[in-house]
Amino acid sequence: MLSYIRWIYTPIVKYSIFEKVRIVILLDSSICIYSIVYLDSPREVLKNMCGIVGVWNFNSQPVNPDELNRFTDTLAHRGPDGRGTFFDENIHLGFGHRRLSILDISDAAHQPMSYAQDRYWITYNGEIYNFIELKHELEQLGYQFNTSSDTEVILASYDRWGEECQLHFNGMWAFAIWDKQERKLFISRDRFGVKPLFYCYDGNHFAFASEMKAFLALEWCNLDFDEEIIATALTNHLIVEGLERSFLKNINKLLGGHCLIVRENQAPEIIRWWNTLDHLEEIPSSYKDQVSRFRELFLDACRIRMRSDVSLGCSLSGGLDSSSVLCGIKYIRNCDRNGERLAANWQKAFVATYPGTLQDERYYADEVIHHTGVTPVYCEISPSDINNIFKKYIYYYEDITEVWIGPWIVYRTQRENNVFVTLDGHGGDELLGGYQQYIYSLLIESLIQIPRWGQAKQYFDIYIGFYTKNKRAFNLCIAGISKIKKYIFNHMSTYCLEITRSLMGEKRNSWLLVTPCTFSTPPYNQDNKLLEKHDRLFNELYCDFHYFNLPVNLKDYDRLSMAHGVEVRSPFLDWRLVCYTFSLPSDSKIGEGLTKRILRDAMKGILPESIRSRTTKLGFGDPKDDWIFKKYTHFIINTIASKEFLESPIWDGRQISRDVHTALEKKDYRTVNNSWKYVQAMNFMLAFKKQREEFFPGISNKNV
């Protein structure tokens, strides 16, 4: 009977004697049907965003309700505002959902949600920013809606366009739709992989979830650590997120721009539904028109991301990208005070400050705050914060790269201030050439084959502007063009060779016992052939945006924000802006002595001039080098002295211990700091083992 449940939007509710459980009586014509829906108590509401799970058993065994509930609630931190489960007992399939309410915060929009007389069921994480336009279009085609949510728009779009609906969406998402009529499970991840999706298939079961840690709740799921991937992360974490494999064997990622179809007793079919290279466009011939179009796209990307039924704010670093987003919001609000579904409360900016360090950018942030008139909330970050949150951080972060205390505290502070949505500047650097390595690339290109000395000098000056502390070193080379050529060519050739080896997993590391893997995925291999006709800067930006830097950053900020119930939206990741920007010539991105040239020109009159013309760059990070060496050597020493660390099959614990003790005597900051990621890896693995033991006491250590 449960497989024929219809989700009624005004159910009759009866509470059971069990805590956190209510019995929902659903009336469908003359038939009385019941479903058990587990709900968090009001005291547990303030956690974080949407989490989705699902299980499909192919071994004729029904989905265990206790197991699905446990599976769902491992992601309670992602969804504090509600929970629900759905079972199709005829097919042995179940969905779970934890909800953070952003659009249509009424009970009508609870998930899992059904559509078309229960033909479709969905569990969904993310936001479709153009849902209003899509809803109007579908209504013209005869579709009717019972909610004001974007979830129902996804279901109607799938009913209308099938898998092609993905091309109609502008947003970030990971969703699963069960089609009872076709007996087909369709799972989709957004174009650039903003929202996460992991899955497991062993022949007898298929399961998916928003995070790796959720699979710890499935007793049948074999979860040994993938030692090769851990070794790869310790060598070069930038390539790990672009791989299909995860840190746990048998758990794979669904890559951004891909969808997955599962049919009964069949292995998952993975399809690449999006490739940015297929959507490059004709651009205006004049630079002035290019700037005008960029400005139009960027401001509209900000506008549709302001749609929210709850408060939103901004994370402000004082850099060009986050400042552009906040100033763009202010500009839009001045022009359109009554925009459809635009958040009424948006006037708070959250600034991470690092008093007494070079990392502190409060001065620049204050310039933007004064310009926009928003209310600042300052988050002072200190080394003691690492100690206070480390164990919790490691578990929620589920990675072994860096410890980003600043963003963690910023998002926590946003939630404490009742800000549930934040518009941030992620993606701007990878889209527009904001990092120094892109200047390296242009320098090399200007000096090899037929040297272009004027261009080389221009790129050289841009690089100097990144870090004022480097001016003295580089001024030694300015005496003559030949000296510039010799220094730049020799240094950059070596640098790029090291980067290339590192990216491909070839960099040797005496601390490792396991060989890192090389980077290879079907979409990357396919794109390599198509990238040959583009210039060096395009290639580097494209690969960093789709495979290396950006996927890592998106994973970081998803976990850091979701740990506190805050949804991150990134205007620079609007697919229209991405396709347009990749269609631009390189000198529109880096030229006239500036990085992000077209953004700076597009924001003229909107950004404060002191920010628009700023060339130095720090980024949204922590001064970890000083912190780790000066404040956490005791913690490092204790960790590397533990039995688990010394006997690790992945790294040579005894060699690391000897090297670190020698480095401490010599005040070798670099070696001590390099050991930190091994310390983090050890704690990451211990955290997962502990959680598995809590779910299944006495389980073999081999199984995580």
What is the CATH-assigned architecture of the largest domain? 4-Layer Sandwich
- Return the CATH topology of the largest domain: Glutamine Phosphoribosylpyrophosphate, subunit 1, domain 1
Question: Quick check: average pLDDT?
Answer: 85
| Beta-strand segment tally | 20
What do these coordinates show?
It is globular and about 70 Å long. The protein is built from 25 helices and 20 strands. Strand 5 (82-88) and strand 6 (93-99) form a beta hairpin. The longest helix is centred in the C-terminal third of the chain and has 27 residues, at 669-695. The model is unreliable at 1-49, 469-484 and 497-502 (pLDDT under 50). With 704 residues, it is of the alpha+beta class. Helices cover 40% and strands 16% of the residues. The protein has four domains: 41-274, Glutamine Phosphoribosylpyrophosphate, subunit 1, domain 1 (4-Layer Sandwich); 278-431 and 550-612, HUPs (Rossmann fold), CATH 3.40.50; 435-544, no CATH class; 624-695, no CATH class. The strands form four sheets. It has a six-stranded antiparallel sheet, covered by helices on one side. A six-stranded antiparallel sheet has the order 7-8-9-10-14-15. The protein has a five-stranded parallel sheet with strand order 18-17-16-19-20, sandwiched between helices. The two termini are 37 Å apart.
Task: Spell out the blueprint of helices and strands.
Elements lengths: L11 E4 L5 E8 L2 E8 L12 E7 L7 H9 L8 E7 L4 E7 L13 E3 L4 E9 L2 H10 L9 H12 L9 E9 L4 E6 L8 E4 L3 E5 L17 H9 L16 E2 L4 E6 L5 E4 L14 H18 L7 E4 L4 H16 L12 E6 L8 H11 L2 E6 L3 H14 L7 H12 L4 E3 L4 H5 L3 H12 L5 H14 L4 H5 L5 H23 L18 H9 L5 H11 L2 H14 L4 E3 L5 H9 L13 H6 L6 H4 L11 H8 L1 H8 L2 H4 L6 H14 L2 H27 L9
Parallel strand pairs: 16-17, 16-19, 17-18, 19-20
Antiparallel strand pairs: 1-2, 2-3, 4-6, 4-12, 5-6, 7-8, 8-9, 9-10, 10-14, 11-12, 11-13, 14-15
Helix pairs in contact: 2-3, 5-6, 5-18, 6-7, 11-12, 11-14, 11-16, 21-25, 22-25, 24-25
